Each structure stands twice: as C-alpha cells, then as structure tokens.
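Lecture notes, part 5. Sequence design as translation. It can be helpful to think of inverse folding as translation between two languages: the language of shapes and the language of residues. The source text, in structure tokens, appears below.
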C-alpha cells in the first residue's frame, strides 16, 4: 500500500469545480429572487 502524506495532493481542479458550483448557485438564487420580486410586483 502506498505511503500517505497529508497535504501533498493537488487540489486545484477540485477548487475550480467548487468555485464554479458556488458561482452557479449564487447566480441561480439571484435569478430566482428577481423572478419572485417581479411576480410580486406584476401579480400584486
């Protein structure tokens, strides 16, 4: 079995993926909030 050394794994791809996920989530929440506000304004 290979020797495991803590902190030697290259995590740049995981960090890029997580950053993309966070950006996607933030933008999706903003779009949903804008849609809810527009529905409240025009259907109210």
């Amino acid at each position: 079995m290979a020797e495991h050394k803590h902190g030697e794994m290259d995590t740049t791809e995981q960090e890029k993926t997580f950053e993309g996920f966070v950006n996607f989530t933030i933008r999706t929440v903003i779009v949903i909030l804008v849609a809810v506000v527009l529905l409240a304004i025009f259907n109210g």
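The translated text above is only one of many valid answers, since several sequences can fold into similar shapes. The chain has a mean pLDDT of 92.
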